[in-house]
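Aim 2 progress. For Aquaporin, the working sequence is reproduced below.
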Amino acid sequence: MTPTLRQCLLAELLGTAFLLIFGTGAVVVDEQTHAIGHGGVAAAFGLIVLIIIQSLGHVSGAHVNPAVTIGFWAAGRFPGRRVLPYVLAQLAGGLLGSGTVWLVATPGSSLGATLPAHSVAQAFGVELGLTFWLMLIILRVTSSYYEQGLLVGLTISATVGLEALVGGPLSGASMNPVRSLAPALVCGNLTAAWVYVAAPVAGALLGVLANRLLDPAPSAGSEPTS
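Predicted structure tokens for this construct:
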């Protein structure tokens, strides 16, 4: 039975909320206890992404990221009429997740918000590149030819964890406008927020373009199968 739009939106809201609770929550816990470390934070993001994909992917696709939703639409795999509802559900879920993290954070905490470590230009370039690679991986492993159940979730979550591990010290390795905007809005620090909206969306669109270039072109004499 095909999930209704309401069910899909609820899945996106819940999935994004838990992404923020356990992802940025790990950042906040490490700020307070120093018990997790940068590697542990990266692992937390990878693990929660795997859990979300395996538990909610069959309902909504487990986008939990406006850049991914826009990327799927640009790739022709997602209806345009659902883009805005998905993005709004993701934003609501992100705010719910960041609000939950705020309850356990110490006063003055950034709630795991992403900020450029050096220049804004460097952060933009890092986020562009990370999201490009993430979107390309997602499109490749979710194609009908390559998709193999659990391996899809493992590959995507491993990509998120690896990129968080390597890119985190430079830009925060957001790759997700809501992951950055939600804690920024809740804590009131919107420094360079535009970078974490524009760069992931641009990177996702570049990933769509690269995926098209990688797909084999149909032979001249081939007939349509449908």
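Confidence is low (pLDDT under 50) at residues 221-226. This observation will guide construct design in the next reporting period.
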